[in-house]
Amino acid sequence: VIHYFRHRIRRLPDTPHKVARGMFAGTFVSILPLPGLQMLLGGLLAWVMRGNILAAILCSFLSNPVTTPFFAVASIGLGQWMLGQDSSFGARAIGRAFAEAGEDLWHNVRSAFTNDVAHWAGLHRFWETVFLPYFVGSIVIGVLCGLGAYYLTIPLVAAYQRARAKRLRERAEKLQRARAEREGEAE
User: Fold this and answer.
1) Mean per-residue pLDDT, 48-55
2) pLDDT at 10 (0 to 100)
3) Which of 39, 48, 17, 1 is nearest to 150 (CA)?
4) Is the pTM higher than 0.85?
5) Of 60, 67, 8, 55, whose CA–CA distance to 150 is shortest?
6) CA-to-CA distance for 78 and 145, rounded, in angstroms?
7) CA angle 70, 75, 76 (to 5 degrees)
C-alpha cells in the first residue's frame, strides 16, 4: 500500500507545487475528526487551493485505524490545553464519554418513535470534553502535518519528475539511434 501510494504521488501529472498543495489539503483534512468526509473535504479543499485533487484524496487515507488513535490522543491533549480544560482526561474518561454519547444517541433515535423524552446530557458532555478539544487540537496538528507534507513534497516530486524526464529523453534518443542504424543498414 505504501509503495503504491508513493508511486502514485510521484507520477501525478502536475507541477510540484500543485501536487504539494493537494498533499497539504489531504493531510490537513485527514487529521480532523470528520470520519467519512475526509476524501470529499480533502478534494474540495485541494480544488479551492488549486492543488492536485488526486493527491488530496490519496492523502486522506492517512486517517486510518492505525494512525487515528495517535492523532486523536495528541489532538485532544493539545485541544484541552488550548481551551484551558483539565488535561488529565484519560483514555477511560474518553471511552466513558463515547459510551454515554452512544447511549444518548440510541435513546434519542428510539424516542423519536415513542413517547420518551430525548436525553442530551451525554452528548453535551461528549461535545465539551472530547469532540471540541479534539477538533481544536486537530486543526493545529493538521496544519503542522500539512505544512510538513507540503514542504517535503515539492523537492521530492521535482526530483522525480526531472529524473523521469531524463530517462524518457534517453530512451527516445536510444530509439532514434537504433532507428537511424536500421535505416543506415537498409541502404
Assistant:
1) 94
2) 65
3) 17
4) no
5) 55
6) 14
7) 105
Rounded to 5 degrees, φ, ψ at 65 are -60, -20
Kindly provide the b/e burial profile for residues 23-40, where b requires at least 16 CB atoms within 10 angstroms of the residue's own CB.
bbbbbbbbbbbeeeebbe
Tell me the C-alpha distance between 119 and 121, whole Å: 6
For residues 22 and 10, what is the distance between their CA atoms, to the nearest angstrom?
A: 12
Q: Give the CA distances from residue 104 to residues 44, 113, 124, 127, 134, in Å, rounded to whole numbers and listed in that order.
A: 32, 15, 10, 12, 20
Cα 171 to Cα 3, 12, 125, 164, 178: the distances in Å are: 25, 21, 64, 10, 10
Instruction: Kindly report, residue by residue over 121-158, the tens digit of the pLDDT.
Output: 888 888 888 899 999 999 999 999 999 999 999 998 89
Question: Is residue 116 exposed (0-12), middle (13-18) or buried (19+ Cβ within 10 Å)?
Answer: exposed
Report the alpha-carbon angle 127-130-61, nearest 5: 110
Give the residue from 61, 36, 34 showing the smallest Cα distance to 135: 34
CA distance 58 to 22: 9
- Residue 55 is placed in which grid cell? 493527491
Highest mean pLDDT among 1-5, 22-26, 64-68: 22-26
